[in-house]
């Protein structure tokens, strides 16, 4: 038995079924997940109310925090803090796009506005803050001697990353002037970095962010934009058509999505993952090669997804047009 169960008023599950991505136990239809965390009690309470909302709508595979015997969601064991969450497996054979649009629509009906995970309308300030942090890292690494191949690669690439980020922030100022909205432009429950979360057996509530739905669409498309077939691939086209047929994206939404794709989140995430190591230089070289493909997909973005740029009054980036 794991010691965390001593702190909860539940029947103790004895069958461990997995240790990835979190230590998982099962008891009949219920699955329990022991999730290391650094969030606050307030954040955990908001996750609980959101997960409960989804459970009430039939999405019982969303992981829901459980209060312990002290009526708190965070439990300390040694020096670590944990969330204990539960979920019930449900068999959902719908396509990913249909599931994601349905997930967003249920998020529209969530009756509260979270305070600890709210990124809606805050991309500019969040991006500016993120770049400030990386500029501090850049100055530190620039002075470092001796420098590993990775550090040299990061230092050389950083001005390019900053340029992209500044372009995205400038583009956001244009997007904010757009006045053509629809119902899909209200905030919903989204993911920090959407990949294929709707295809996972369980939906991890500790990844939730309160934001515009196109946050998830952009991160899904970002994966395609790093490949030569890009947005023209059958998988990408099917995903977009499946999503938009259930929940149309407004002119404002398309521009917001494009702004997010300009911001080099994938490059910054890569730096986050490996900046503590020095043996990923070959990965950086591949990333740089893929970025040229990414730029081409940015340049032809609206054409590839079948949107007439004149109809939505799209503003293209001058340096992309010169590629």
From TrEMBL:
SUPFAM superfamilies given in the database record: Protein kinase-like (PK-like)
GO CC annotations on file: endospore-forming forespore
Record key words, sorted: Capsid protein, Virion
Keyword check for Iron: no
Coiled coil (UniProt feature): none
InterPro entries recorded: CotS-like, Kinase-like_dom_sf
Superkingdom, natural source: Bacteria
Protein name (database record): Spore coat protein YutH
Naturally occurring in which organism (per UniProt): Gracilibacillus orientalis
Lineage summary: Bacteria, Bacillati, Bacillota, Bacilli, Bacillales
